[in-house]
Amino acid sequence: MADAGPADRWSDPTYDGGMDDAPQPRTDDGDELTPAQLDFLASVFELVRAGQTDTVVSFLDRGLPVNLTNSKGDSLLILAAYHKHADLVRALLERGADTARLNDRGQTALGSAVFRNTAEIVTDLLDAGADPELGAPSAVAVAEFFELPQMAGLLAGGR
């Protein structure tokens, strides 16, 4: 899959971004995470996918990093945008989530929101400074490839 173009990578659910040989996650001081810690972190990503805004926010407000990523490089913001959880996207943005963070496939939260055709989230991300040209594929490329004229209009500034 190394020669695949951006659209192929975007639509291929089996592409793992080359993470098969990823190193064991470590704490800031270099210690390996315990199985319980790994389970907790995995549960946070499930909470994001399920749109459990209040629970995720409570963890963030107690110190969970807002730009936490999983083994595929998906940030909390990317997952919230992909799963169409506008309230959670806004909460993450309010806490400083990085709109320029790319996952291991080169995708952004904005590209995810465009792909899912979610105008409210696209607008929130643009208002927070997300770059429509960032990523591979970029949000602009996603809108073009999937023929999403409303999304293309939002990205072009036609809100």
Contiguous uncertain segments of 5+ residues: 1-23
What is the second-level CATH architecture?
A: Alpha Horseshoe
- Alpha carbon gyration radius: 16 Å
Percent strand: under 5%
Count of alpha/pi helices:
9
**How many distinct beta strands?**
0
Summarize it.
The protein is elongated. By secondary structure, it is an all-alpha fold. The chain contains nine helices and no strands.
Task: Walk me through the topology.
Layout: H1 6-11, H2 35-50, H3 53-61, H4 76-82, H5 86-94, H6 109-115, H7 119-127, H8 139-145, H9 149-155
Helix pairs in contact: 3-5, 4-5, 4-6, 5-7, 6-7, 6-8, 7-9, 8-9
Protein described:
It is a single chain. The chain is mainly alpha-helical and 159 residues long. The chain has a single domain (33-155), classed as Alpha Horseshoe (Serine Threonine Protein Phosphatase 5, Tetratricopeptide repeat). 31% of the residues are buried. The longest helix is centred in the N-terminal third of the chain and has 16 residues, at 35-50. The chain has nine helices and no strands.
Key words describing this protein structure:
mainly alpha, 159 residues, 0% strand, disordered N terminus, Serine Threonine Protein Phosphatase 5, Tetratricopeptide repeat, single chain
